[in-house]
Amino acid sequence: MSRSHKASAGATPRPTETKTPSKAPAALYIVATPIGNLADLSTRANETLKAVGTIACEDTRVTGGLLHRFGISTPMLAYHDHNAERMRPQIISRLLEGESFALVSDAGTPLISDPGFKLVKDCVDHGIVVIPIPGPSAPLAALMAAGLPTDRFYFGGFLPSKTKARREMLGEILGLKATLVFFESPHRIASTLVDMAAVLGEREAVVGRELTKLHEEFRRGTLGALAKHYDATQTKGEIVIVVDGAPDVETGPVINVDEALRDALKTMSVRDAANEIAKLSGTSRRDVYARALALAKSRDA
C-alpha cells in the first residue's frame, strides 16, 4: 500500500497552515496591536503589517514607533475621527484597484471606540474582503482578571463627560443582567464612579489600570468605596471599569387580581382598591382600575 493510499484510508490529514504571503492579497486586514506590552503583538499580526501595501492608523507617530520596534517599513496613512469622511472614499477606491490595507488603532483591537466600523461597512457594501487579525483587547483583558461573571457582558465605551448625560445613560442600562465594561480617563474616574454608585447602587466593581504594562493594577470594591479611593488619589494611565450586572430581584407571591380586588372592594372605593392591588401585583393601574369597575358593577347588579 502506498504512503498516499495509507493517508487517504484513515490517517487524519494535517490542517492546512495559514501563512501570510510576502505580499498580501487585496483586502482590508483589521489588525489588533499591543495595549501596552509589545510582546503581545502576534506573529500573524507582524507578518500582516509587513505584507500589506499600506497601514491606515489613528496616529502615525504612535504606530510608527511600533513599526520601528519590529522592523516594519510599510507606508502609513492617517485615518482618524477628524479625516475619516475624506479619507474613507480614497481607501475604498485603492482597495477596489487591488491594493491591500491594514487598519490599526493606537492600541488594542480596532473598531472598539474608533471610526473603523464605517470603513469596514463600506468595504462590505463594495464587496471588499475584510479579514480580522485578532489580538489584544483592553475590555477583554479587564474581564479576564476582574472576577465578575463573563457569560454575558455589555461594553459601553466611554460614558458622556457631563454628569446629567452620564447618569441618563447609566439609567438606560440599570436593569441589564450582564457585567458592564467601560473605558474612562484618569481625570474623570472619581466622578464617574460617584455617578455609577448613585444610579446603579452599591455593586461590586473592578478598576483596571495600565493593563499589560509595568504598573498594571486591579482595584476591587463597591462602586462607592472605589469612588472615595479615586477621589483622594491622583491617577494616571488608561482605565477600564468593570461593574457587576443588575442583581436578581426577588418577586413576591403571584396575586390573583380578581380575588384581591373583590376583597379590597369590601372596604375601599374602586379607585383606592385599584391603586392598592396595582401596587401589590405589579399590574398596570389602568388595567386594574378597569377590572375593578367591572367587578363593582357586577357586584351591584
State the main characteristics.
single chain, alpha/beta, 12 helices, Methyltransferase, Cobalt-precorrin-4 Transmethylase, Domain 2, five-stranded mixed β-sheet, elongated, 301 residues, 3 domains, Cobalt-precorrin-4 Transmethylase, domain 1
Instruction: Give, in order, the helices and strands.
Output: HEHEHEHEHEHEHEHEEHEHHH
The main sheet comes to: 5 strands, parallel
Structural class: alpha/beta
Kindly identify the CATH topology of the largest domain: Cobalt-precorrin-4 Transmethylase, domain 1
Number of domains: 3
Helix segment tally: 12
How does this model look, in words?
The protein has 301 residues and is of the alpha/beta class. It folds into three domains: 20-136, Cobalt-precorrin-4 Transmethylase, domain 1 (3-Layer(aba) Sandwich), CATH 3.40.1010; 139-243, Tetrapyrrole methylase, C-terminal domain (Methyltransferase, Cobalt-precorrin-4 Transmethylase, Domain 2), CATH 3.30.950; 257-300. Helix content is 42%, strand content 16%. It contains twelve helices and ten strands. It has helices at 3-9, 43-51, 60-69, 84-96, 116-125, 138-146, 163-172, 189-200, 223-231, 257-265, 270-281, 285-300; strands spanning 28-31, 54-57, 76-78, 101-103, 130-133, 153-158, 179-184, 204-209, 217-222, 239-243. Strands 3-2-4-1-5 form a five-stranded parallel sheet, sandwiched between helices. A five-stranded mixed sheet has the order 6-7-10-8-9, with helices on both faces. Strand 2, helix 3 (60-69) and strand 3 form a beta-alpha-beta unit. It is elongated, with a radius of gyration of 28 Å. The relative contact order is 0.10. Mean pLDDT is 89; it is low at 1-18.
